[in-house]
């Protein structure tokens, strides 16, 4: 029993040292009063007979497995090296693919044939439903008021870019953009409307 108590004391000290290194307060550690140690020792004797002839003087500080052969170490190092190489190759391939996509996008917008006519989004036609049936409504940009308008049957209401994006990407029920309409940004007659000077209404 004395050896068990001494062994338990050593374990408790190492547990306290490890807990202190992790920042846990010592008050959270279990109590090791003489009475509790005696109770634990007596229960150990009753339920699990002590079969060792003596207690090891030092408890290994590292968890099992504590021993590894040269062959096992060589296999482990080989696996780790191969996994690292595979991860590095995958990472490099991804980086190259990302760079390739960025270059493609940059070249697309710098192509002379693609920048001859400046354009802007003018309207979006949204569809809700199935391929053979459903409902349509449109978002049209009001250039005079610089805002989006929603045309849904006989209802014409003010809208926003956020609502347009939500409907266009299927974020509202099962609706999504069906058609995008762009106009020549230089063609002012497509943007500017003629108004009656007296009433202010478009002609």
UniProtKB/TrEMBL annotation:
Domain USP per the UniProt entry, residue ranges: 1-185
EC code(s) of this entry: 3.4.19.12
Keyword Zinc found: no
Residues covered by region (Disordered): 16-38
Keyword Cytoplasm: no
Domain of life: Eukaryota
Xref: InterPro entries: Papain-like_cys_pep_sf, Peptidase_C19_UCH, UBP14-like, USP, USP_CS
Catalytic activity of the protein: Thiol-dependent hydrolysis of ester, thioester, amide, peptide and isopeptide bonds formed by the C-terminal Gly of ubiquitin (a 76-residue protein attached to proteins as an intracellular targeting signal)
Record-given protein name: ubiquitinyl hydrolase 1
Organism ancestry: Eukaryota, Metazoa, Chordata, Craniata, Vertebrata
